[in-house]
Recover the amino acids of this structure.
């Protein structure tokens, strides 16, 4: 029998197995080895298996870093150099691509990376240190994608306009998203209207929401699908809070919804609606008022705590047995 | 060394005979054949694990006696290993190998690929996966040119005379390589 004794003569299942242990960068190199491997790779289109993907955009530099399945970090830097050239730096190698906009070179590479990505990315973080380049990236992001990206955790630096988020979030696969985190770019907290974002399937399917230094302008009712939330809001009303409270009574996976309210004009009305059987507690010198509400058909209890110091409310689902003896459960 | 005298002393009840492509007979302990899904299925189909069934020699037309010798060495070493679990990601994606395995597979590429084919044919998952991982570990982190050298592949892709970088016919396609990928080392001086 004539035995095959070279990589190019291997049957498909063997090649697939070998390629499965290689990361995306290796596959691109193997593709260049010879014509038959090039055809094989183009046909079977092996997946790239990125885990974390971070993009940080600076005035004259973009960093693309990612972890492969082997936990190998790759950091690729695209620098704008004098005379509109692009210098690409990866580990110890440096290459100058003449007469090329560094953002275009970066976008093209990102397109290739994402094109091969079929599996789930755990985290995608878009960090901004500069505006113009960032906006250029957002304008072009949609064009890069050949299919919705599957991402579990989405992190993005924003300013005061939801359109920036709308340039990215709708193009991710809503089925895979678990968490949304938004951070403010800049020193001072800014108000952020998110009326369009709460309509997205991505928002409704998400379980976790974390917002830092942005003050959200939204209806508090739109938080009812989350199990873990930490946000600040421009204003809430007693009516909205009562709707949220009712919805949370029927949310079996609720862990904690924590809301800091900048304005809550009819707060007194909401507090009174919770009833008089409250307990006060002092933790680290911070006074809290706590109510426990019975959850229908369950041993669990909805705990609502209010801290006047920062005008914040926390909703937790806890076990009935964890309610302290001197507290009473309201029905 | 005579192939008819394996290290264990099998009795006719607990062994079968396999015949390599060059006509050599090997007596194989049934315990060892459990690692080969192909042989295990054959044995169970013909009920060769029963003592009252007459056992014919099994021809393995795809495997030479040298390869069979090498495979038996693998089977003997892994005789008491737990059954191979394909889904153990932590184990199967690692690029570190037992010293024994490294020595065992310290063979030329062509022999390695022949052994890989034999492992594929006999369906010995642990050996198959291990060789694939070894091959991947030799490829990973290398440029196309280095891979050609390591695997001794002659390119049929036309190289640019000056840069040594393959000329892509379909250069209109966006997937002809990342800017960073083309950072392959400079070609040797002409």
């Amino acid at each position: 029998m004539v035995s095959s004794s070279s990589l190019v003569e291997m049957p498909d299942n063997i090649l697939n197995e070998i390629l499965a242990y290689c990361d995306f960068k290796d596959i691109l190199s193997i593709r260049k080895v010879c014509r038959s491997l090039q055809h094989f790779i183009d046909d079977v289109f092996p997946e790239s298996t990125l885990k974390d993907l971070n993009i940080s955009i600076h005035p004259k530099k973009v960093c693309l870093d990612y972890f492969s399945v082997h936990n190998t970090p790759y950091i690729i830097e695209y620098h704008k150099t004098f005379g509109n050239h692009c210098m690409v730096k990866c580990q110890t190698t440096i290459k100058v691509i003449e007469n090329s906009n560094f953002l275009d070179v970066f976008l093209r590479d990102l397109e290739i990376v994402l094109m091969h990505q079929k599996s789930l990315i755990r985290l995608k973080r878009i960090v901004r240190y500069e505006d113009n380049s960032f906006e250029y990236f957002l304008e072009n992001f949609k064009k890069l994608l050949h299919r919705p990206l599957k991402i579990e955790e989405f992190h993005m630096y924003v300013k005061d306009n939801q359109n920036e988020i709308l340039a990215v979030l709708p193009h991710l696969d809503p089925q895979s998203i678990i968490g949304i985190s938004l951070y403010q770019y800049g020193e001072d907290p800014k108000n952020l209207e998110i009326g369009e974002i709460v309509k997205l399937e991505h928002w409704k399917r998400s379980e976790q929401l974390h917002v830092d230094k942005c003050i959200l302008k939204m209806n508090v009712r739109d938080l009812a699908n989350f199990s873990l939330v930490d946000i600040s809001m421009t204003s809430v009303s007693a009516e909205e809070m009562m709707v949220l409270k009712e919805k949370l009574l029927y949310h079996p996976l609720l862990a904690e919804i924590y809301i800091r309210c900048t304005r809550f004009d009819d707060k007194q009305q909401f507090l009174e609606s919770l009833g008089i059987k409250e307990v006060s507690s002092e933790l680290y010198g911070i006074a809290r008022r706590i109510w426990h509400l019975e959850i229908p058909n369950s041993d669990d209890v909805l705990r609502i705590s209010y801290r006047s110091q920062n005008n914040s409310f926390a909703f937790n689902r806890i076990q009935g047995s964890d309610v302290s003896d001197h507290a009473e459960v309201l029905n | 060394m005579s192939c008819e005298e394996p290290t264990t002393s099998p009795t006719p009840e607990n062994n079968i005979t396999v015949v390599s492509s060059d006509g050599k007979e090997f007596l194989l302990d049934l315990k060892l054949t459990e690692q080969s899904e192909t042989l295990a299925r054959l044995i169970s189909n013909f009920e060769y694990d029963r003592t009252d069934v007459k056992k014919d020699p099994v021809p393995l037309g795809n495997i030479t006696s040298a390869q069979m010798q090498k495979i038996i060495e693998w089977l003997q070493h892994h005789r008491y290993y737990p059954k191979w679990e394909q889904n153990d990601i932590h184990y199967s994606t690692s690029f570190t190998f037992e010293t024994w395995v490294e020595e065992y597979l310290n063979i030329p590429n062509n022999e390695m690929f022949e052994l890989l084919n034999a492992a594929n044919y006999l369906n010995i998952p642990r050996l198959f996966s291990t060789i694939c991982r070894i091959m991947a570990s030799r490829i990973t982190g290398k440029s196309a040119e280095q891979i050609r050298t390591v695997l001794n592949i002659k390119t049929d892709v036309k190289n640019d005379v000056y840069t040594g970088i393959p000329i892509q016919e379909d250069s209109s396609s966006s997937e002809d390589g990342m800017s960073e990928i083309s950072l392959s080392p400079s070609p040797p001086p002409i």
Notes: Chain A touches chain B through 49 residues (CB under 8 Å). The CA atoms of residues 152 and 177 of chain A lie 4 Å apart. The mean pLDDT of chain A is 85.
